[in-house]
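Cross-posting from the modeling subforum.

Setting up a comparison between two proteins and wanted a second pair of eyes on the formatting. Protein 1 (sequence, then structure tokens):
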Amino acid sequence: MNAYSVHFSKKATSAAISGIILAGLLSLAGCGTKVTIPHPRLFDHSQIVLGLRPFALNPFSHAQSNAWVMNMMYDSLVRVNAHGAVSEDIAASWQIQKNSRQYIFHLNPHAKWWNGRPISVHDVAWTYQLYANPNAPIAASQSLARLVASVTTPNADTVVITLVRPDPGFLANVAAAGDDHPILPAFLVSRIPIARLNQSPVFNRLPDMMGSGPYRPYAEGPNGIRWIANAHYFLGSPKTHILLTQWSTPPQPDVAWGHWHISQTKTLYYPRLTYTMLLFNMNASSLPRPMRLALNALLNRYELSRTLGAAIPMTEPVWPSSIYAVSIHLPKADTILRHAGYRQIGGIWHTPQGRPVQVDLTAMRTGQDLHIAQAVRHQLLAAGIPTHLALVSDMHTTLIQHHFVVAVVERRATPFPALAQDFSMTSPTNYGLYDNPAFQVDVTAMNNHPGQLVVNEHRALQALFNNPPGAYLVWSAQKVVVAPTVQHLTLNPYNPLETVGQWTVLRSKNP
């Protein structure tokens, strides 16, 4: 009898939240409307000094960049709000047509560049044609070159982007600024050869460079950059007129990036994604590839998600008119197995050698792991695969003993249907998350700092980056204990430069 092992595990991944919190805090000074965003006393100052690591102003530079800074300088077609929904930015409205392959964006007539010039459809179309150019020496183009079929401008305020295939994450991951796709000033940079964009001085020529965000860099010195508020910012000019991003420590910054003193520890419920995965043994002799693919196809993720009830957010199509919901059609399991030489005898699947198949399923004794594992077992039994459920109290030790890898990591909050997604590199339902260069850079950066991770997390990152081993099942909120200087903070994890609700700033007595 062949015993194939499947382990079931759940792990919450903690991110370096301090920088994200601060990014959200600082955004209060420079983003949003004058009516809805409060401005505590610290941010009523006409000038504020920020402690930051040195960064590159060129969005395509191979040198160190800063996503928060890029969001201060540039806008995108849409943005993702605090609830994970797509909202307006440069595009005032949009429609999705042709079976979710065509996106029609109508530009906001008030959106302008720093010099007051309106953002045109030419700027948007040229930008996305650049991102879809496989010869462009920029990471963003490597994912869109295989996704964008055409970009057209039927009139002076409309841009139409047609995709090669439906992509449920297009709005959130591509059209939003958080994934390295800002709208560029085509009138200024379109004459630059694409091979020189990542080295072009036009992105560093202060104060003549051009952007559209709430702040613009005005002057650069050996210790940092001086920024001024964008008087033409279409969401309202920031009240704090001047920002100083400072490289060196003296004089002490008003807010230091990641090096600020705490007033009291506070527990935040931080709604980043926590994935529960079905993990397959990475040893091919233990779980042959046809059986791994068949298990992916056999599992009904929607039914599994119902075992957790209200904890599952994705039970409706992601966007209006989208064809994508939680359930998804995978290749038929019996087709996969029969093609590989497996056959059913008396309702039970047998290997090509004629031995009955059995799967061993391991789960924790309590909690949602057990509930979902029981549901998985019932589904496999009904499909003709006898399944033995083993319960353990120490999943970490069990994984090590059986050479399993926990690969449950997600750095970006992505509101497309994770429940339905099979992230196998060879899967026809892989819509590009692992092909996304920005995501791979994030994973690589985490993987290159093992001192910040436990051994198991480090192995998980390696497995995730090199060979995603399983199928994502469910997401939920995770509790993160942090030590903030910000009290009563409503954080937007999808875009730190979005609206923050109630908050106050406590100054440290011992800076």
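Protein 2 (same layout):
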Amino acid sequence: SDRETFEIVRNDDEPNRVRIRAPNGLFLQAISETVVLADYQGSSWDDNDPSVFKMNVLTGSILRGEYQITNGYGPDKAPKIMQDHWKTYITEDDFKFMSENGLNGVPIAVSVTLYEAICLCNGSRVIASKEKEITDWKKLHKICLYCCCGIIAGIVSGLLGLGGGFILGPLFLELGIPPQVASATSTFAMVFSSSMSVVQYYLLERFPVPYASYFILIATIAALTGQHVVRKIIAILGRASIIIFVLAFTIFLSAISLGGVGIGNMVEKMENNEHMGFRNICHQS
């Protein structure tokens, strides 16, 4: 038979008390525990009214995410909608596509690193801030140390989902790099890694251009404003340490925010018995 649409009518005073109107204009009423008829014409909301039902809205993991979408659209529309949604996931085939088409930033990163290391060793390139050059780059172990720090920062940023420059900033300061140079280098690292990701996502058709353009505009304005303000403050105070304080405050605020949000989401998932994302590291056939 053809499918029919039923209308839920709520009580204005008690929204959880509802009546179900059938396509014939009459309400459903419970004749017995197993029989329901669509022939009620009354308008009462009393407890003994057979057409009044109590509706409980389920919360938690039952009506969230994909469950809510499939329940809302029904068996006809839900499969197509969910298939289109699943196509946006990054799968193993996407990594094969990147590998086969040369979308790999490792050769570029290694080439740039070797070029800069050679330039620092032969003296054709220096690290300087306000005409104060750092010239102790003749020792090979110093360059190897900085390369290892960059690799570790990349691994940590990949595991935690943070920008590599966000980790390189305090690392450079600990190694004695001037604040201006540390800030500029870490920012360039973030731009470099982010640009590679942008190209990959765009080629994989995972890139919402209007959404990204909005963020690019906001980030550019914020960066120029912040740079101008910090430059003015340094000129007034004569101390570049203001960059260190700003960086430390940003890291502290980010740690509190990320930790708080993460703990909140974890507690909510535990209460709703949702999947935490952890799986068995052993292969399951």
